[in-house]
Amino acid sequence: MTHPEAEIRATHDRFLTTRAEIEREERPWADLSAFFTEDAWYVDPAWGRVEGLSAVQEFLQASMRGLENWTFPTQWTLVEGDRLVSCWMNRLPGRREDGSYYEAPGISTFEYAGEGKFASCYDLLNMVHIRELIVESGWRPGPGAVAPPRNPVR
Q: Which CATH architecture best describes the domain 5-137?
């Protein structure tokens, strides 16, 4: 059964509102797990695949520790069937001399399960580009930053 596009977009809009509150340090990253089902899975290019709501919650909290001053503005979203695809930027703090941001695009593909929950999220981004931006900007991770696992589940 395919869910109404308006329902999927409304859930994603609430997800983005929560993420904006997190970026302003009003809430913890783990709060995004409220948008996933108990059996959800999440794939991140650096952290690999995690399965189950508690693992998703732990991943969100650990992977974002030390990135408190990054933001992730959304550029666009598309919905087809129960799938929502979102393009967003990994925006590091500061700007170049010409005023441009240190940023690189990312794509997330969500599978909507109904009742305001996603069954999965698959993030794609160019980690080499992110590393280049980190070097160029001189950014350093904040306190408590955790490195991704050496051998993540793919």
A: Roll (3.10)
SS3 per-residue string spanning the chain = CCCCHHHHHHHHHHHHHHHHHHHCCCCCHHHHHHHEEEEEEEEECCCEEEECHHHHHHHHHHHHCCCCCCECCEEEEEEECCEEEEEEEEEEEEECCCCCEEEEEEEEEEEEEECCEEEEEEEEECHHHHHHHHHHHCCCCCCCCCCCCCCCCC
In tens digits, the chain (154 residues) has pLDDT values of 899 999 999 999 999 999 999 999 999 999 999 999 999 999 999 999 999 999 999 999 999 999 989 999 999 999 999 999 999 999 999 999 999 999 999 999 999 999 999 999 999 999 999 999 999 999 999 999 999 999 999 8
Extents of the domains making up the chain: 5-137
| CA distance linking residue 76 with residue 54, whole number of Å | 29
